[in-house]
Amino acid sequence: MSIQEILKDMSYGPAPEDSRIVQGWLDSHRDGFGHFIDGAFTAPGEMFEVGNPATGQTIANVTQGSAGDVDAAVNAARKAQKSWAKLSGHARALYLYAIARHVQQHARFLAVLETMDNGKPIRETRDIDVPLLARHFYHHAGWAEIAEDELPGMKPYGVCGQIIPWNFPLLMLSWKIAPALAAGNTVVLKPAEYTPLTALAFAEICAEVGLPAGVVNIVTGDAETGGAIVGHDGIDKVAFTGSTEVGKTIRRQTAGSGKGLTLELGGKSPFVVFADADLDAAVEGVVDAIWFNQGEVCCAGARILVAEAVAERFETLLARRMDTVVVGDPLEKGTDMGAIVHPVQLARIRDLVSQGKAEGATLRQGSAPDGCFYPPTLATNVQPASVLSTEEIFGPVVTLTTFRTPSDAIDLANNTRYGLAASIWSENVNLCFDIAAQVKAGVVWINCTNVLDAGAGFGGYRESGFGREGAREGMRAYLKTPAPQGTAAELPDLSAVPHGGGVADAVDRTAKLYIGGKQARPDSGYAYTVEGASGPLGLAGLGNRKDIRNAVEAASKAGGWGKATGHNRAQVIYYLGENISARADTFVARLESFGLKSAAAKAEVETAIRRCFWYAAQADKFDGAVHQTKSAHITLAMHEPLGIMGLVCPTGQPLLGVLSLALPAIAMGNSVVAVPSQAHPLAATDLYQVLETSDVPAGVVNIVTGPRDELARTLAQHDGVSGMWYVGGAESAAMVEAESAGNLKQTWTEIDGARDWSGREGQGRAFLHRATQVKNIWLPYGE
Fold first, then answer.
1. Which of 298, 372, 432, 448 is catalytic?
2. How far, in Å, CA of 738 to CA of 728, rounded?
3. How many CA atoms within 13 Å lie on the side-chain side of 749?
4. Angle, nearest 10°, between helix axes 130-150 and 169-183?
5. One-character DSSP codes across 194-223
6. Could you give the 3-state DSSP secondary structure of residue 455?
7. pLDDT given for residue 581 in this prediction
8. Cα–Cα distance for residue pair 167/189, rounded to 1 Å
């Protein structure tokens, strides 16, 4: 081809990456790879093949991890953890700094190996994955240095079991290992079965820098190996990135174990293009959103939502750009899209696309070579209920749907069970931030997409999991505040038959439920006897499943509370404290009727009033942050309410207990369904008139009395509930965690009687953190 023809065609010339050094390393391990346990590689055992997806050739044999291998790795990590945690933050920082330096020194080796193992283009591994790997270790070297000052009172979990996916093997490894080590934990990590090789190369780097034996352990294998890690009694925290279905299984498997848990799961992210957007820039954004990494990205912008007024023009530009996407040899520097990771995944993509086509979708596709490759694909005429709109395809397939108004765009964007990421394109920044605030996603990119940095948290809402990786919020995920320990007392049986004992009050007061700002009779039609120090005190409504459903529905209608300013919420909570103070004698008398001494009853009421004022003060002071990330980007970390929270309150200190859970939740903008003390519910039902006269909007606080654990189960199972706090028995705490897996609601369980609700541990910022989730919003600036 002549120079004139090249300038006219502007096609890439051949630019193959030299893989001989990596191939030599693989050849040196032709007998197979063992695990990396206690600072050394084990002898190879029963093995499985690892292939290069671009060529279909086997490039390595790797040992299948057994329960015994996992046990050895956990024991090594446990042995190393105490001394690792005792090191100064500076000493741990030096190790993480050394890892980052050696990653950079071996950057080309790691990039080529990642491409051969995974199939992604060398341009991406070289320019994105490996630099971010080093960035995370540098960033967390800094956290190791300052964590004691910045996160006082928090301690490492101990031994962390970590399971990572095949789409970003090195990057996911850094997201897991770097913060865990910085916090003083040791790790047992299992890389994906398809892509274990760069994790094993990383293990060699750990040995190269002299990382103490047992601090990092790598066990290879399949899902059975991962299950052994999750279920091992020696694991103190589990961190998993992968499919939502497996995440739910892990949630159930770890229920009641006391293990920490973070889940980064699937997504079906919207890519919203408004009429005033820079359409050319938005088209390039689609390339980065769905054809980056062959679309094998959990936060891929797989659903394009485009304003009807520009849809035709946008589709034309996108189709033209799609035709120029180069699919082929991932070691060729001019390749845009490489190979799909494995034939099993390729078959899944083809099957889902076939289903979508059968449902009426119109497909436009680019070109791709034979083998384990799939062309960039645009699907139009796709209905919101189509499999292409609802299922995570994990391939280079994007749908295009039109909308007319911003509210239509929000409805379509949120029409998914996931909530990982979103991308919004408009030249109107006011509109962008308005949409960003309403989209249910943990990460929102404005006029950009798939921008990642160690200085910003990453993680989702809803069935995309919980917890964050990166930044301050990611460090908190690997540290814990020591929880109080105790043994819950048995609750007395409820009696819904007439008790036969007289009540001293001259006028009978029937304690109903409190739902939607009104007192309501229980659906069951029954009331149960509330016992006091000297016999029956009265009756409380026997709430049931339908009452919980009604309360959740009422809470869902109080969405305006979360949009109110912190100042406005504070004023209501201050007023609540003021009205409790005005009725202090009534509450003291109620507590005395349960058997409390006068001084103790007065102290509980006084503490309840102070707690109102403390959380009112926090309502407009629990701030987010502007993260230090990339140049020419503003990255905002904003605290958002979980939504509807179920609260199952302590048995003792019945007034203070319900307020200690409800106040932080509503201060952060949540609405709540509270189950008060089963034994002493009347302290909570006495709050009804206080709530009504304190300008608490209807539905913000709902109270359902009755059998604690039956109502807790219903709340845990309810898909409309986003967060669940439970104080009760150990067996029921495990039940709550297991049942929450249905919609992956965030849970906080604790043994009843373990915490002194009247002391410092009865309030604090830990409650506020658990009542919120962090949304990171990215905004580039400049010309």
1. 298
2. 15
3. 28
4. 20
5. S--HHHHHHHHHHHHTTPPTTSEEE----H
6. coil
7. 97
8. 16
Q: How far apart are CA 425 and CA 423, in angstroms?
A: 7
Q: How many residues does the chain have?
A: 783
- Exposure string of 129-152, with b = 16+ CB inside 10 Å and e = fewer, is bbbbbbbbbbbbbbbbbebeeebe
- Tell me the C-alpha distance between 507 and 389, whole Å: 60
Q: What is the residue whose two structure tokens read 């925290």?
A: 237
Q: Quick check: 113 and 126 in contact, CB under 8 A?
A: no
Contacts of 498 (CB under 8 A, 6+ apart): none
Quote the CA–CA distance of 471 and 674 in Å, as a whole number: 33
| Buried b / exposed e along 101-117 (16+ C-beta atoms within 10 A) | bbbbebbbbbbbbbbbb
428-478 pLDDT per residue, tens: 999 999 999 999 999 999 999 999 999 999 999 999 999 999 999 999 999
The confidence score (pLDDT) of residue 632 equals: 94
| Max CA pair span of the chain | 106
User: pTM for the full model?
Assistant: 0.94
- Spatial distance between the Cα atoms of 64 and 415, rounded to a whole number of angstroms: 40
State the first-to-last Cα distance of the chain, in angstroms, to the nearest integer: 37
3-class secondary-structure state, position 773: strand
Structure tokens at 122: 């060398």
Distance from C-alpha of 665 to C-alpha of 121, rounded to nearest angstrom: 46
Torsions phi, psi of 459, nearest 5?
165, 170
Annotation says 578 is catalytic: no
The pair of three-digit structure tokens given for residue 562, joined into one six-digit string: 């979360």
What gap in Å lies between CA 711 and CA 675, rounded to an integer? 7
Looking at residue 489, its pLDDT comes to 77
Which tokens is 274 given? Answer: 């408004």
pLDDT, tens digit, 9 for 90 and up, residues 229-285: 999 999 999 999 999 999 999 999 999 999 999 999 999 999 999 999 999 999 999
Q: CA 255, CA 231: separation in Å to the nearest integer?
A: 10
Q: Report the alpha-carbon distance of residue 68 to residue 75 in Å, rounded.
A: 10
Identify the three-state secondary structure at position 97. Answer: helix
C-alpha 22/C-alpha 110 separation (Å) is 8
The per-residue pLDDT for 271 is: 98
373 HSE (CA, 13 A, CB side)? 23
| Residue pointed to by tokens 């446990």 | 78
Q: For residues 147 and 478, give the distance between their C-alpha atoms in angstroms, rounded to a whole number.
A: 11
Tokens for 202, please give them.
Answer: 């990383």
Q: What is the DSSP string of 352-378?
A: HHHHHHHTT-EEEE----SSS----EE
Q: Which helix (H) or strand (E) holds 637?
A: strand 633-641
CB 138 within 8 A of CB 229: no
Strands 644-648 and 723-728: parallel
| Alpha-carbon dihedral 541, 545, 548, 550, rounded to 10 degrees | -100
Helix or strand run (H / E) with residue 562: helix 560-563
Q: What is the 3-state secondary structure (H, E, C) of 687-702?
A: CHHHHHHCCCCCCCEE
At 149 the three-state DSSP class reads helix
- Show the low-confidence residues of the chain (pLDDT under 70): 1, 500-509
Residue with tokens 């001394």: 83
Residue 500 CB-density burial (10 A; 0-12 exposed, 13-18 middle, 19+ buried): exposed
User: For the chain, what is the total number of helices (H) and then of strands (E)?
Assistant: 29, 31
Q: Among the options 17, 114, 264, 710, which is catalytic?
A: 264
- Is 206 noted as a catalytic residue in this protein? no
3-state secondary structure 33-70: ECCEECCEECCCCCEEEEECCCCCCEEEEEECCCHHHH
State phi, psi for 253 to the nearest 5 degrees: -65, -35
pLDDT of residue 453: 96
pLDDT at residue 534 in the model: 80
Structure tokens at 126: 């070289």
Task: Phi first, then psi: give them for residue 740, nearest 5 degrees.
Answer: -70, -15
Residue among 691, 731, 687 nearest 713 (CA): 731
